[in-house]
Every structure is written in structure tokens, then in C-alpha cells.
Write a structure and sequence with these properties.
Layout (H helix, E strand, L loop, with lengths): L3 H9 L1 E6 L5 E3 L2 E3 L1 H14 L4 E7 L4 H13 L5 E6 L2
Length: 88
Amino acid sequence: MPSDAAKRDAKQQVMYIYVSDNGEVFLGNKSMGMRDLSTRLVDEFEKNVDQHIMVLVSEKVSVQTMVTVLDKIYLTGARNISVADWKM
């Protein structure tokens, strides 16, 4: 049985999603379409409902693209989402 510290560490791990200049979405270092991203996130939230998502967005990404990505993430069940600039 995992210790309380191990459970806490697993909950505190951050999942990084990157949105590049051309609007391409990456989960970690793997390029993903929005459908694949949604499927992967749903699977992740079944394991850990408190999963923290950090969305790093290139400064050249339009607000509309950023909002579209954030909407998709939110619709998968994410509630712990942060957004920051991604300097490429």
C-alpha cells in the first residue's frame, strides 16, 4: 500500500500541455490531436481527479486557439488548470 507521502507526491505531479506557434498541441513531448488529448486526459482524471494541468502557450498563439484548448481540457473534467507563457 502506498504511503501518504507517495500519494501526495502523485497528486502534486503536474501534467504539461504545450501549444506551439502554429497551434499544435503537445502533451509532454508528444504531439496530439484534440481528440487524442481529450481521451488521454479523461483516462488521467479517472486515476487522479486532482491532477494539475499546466498549459504553456506560445506568445504567437491566438486567444481563440488558447480558449479552444482550455475548453477541451475543462470538458475532460480538469478543474486544476494553470496557464503561462511558453518562450520557445
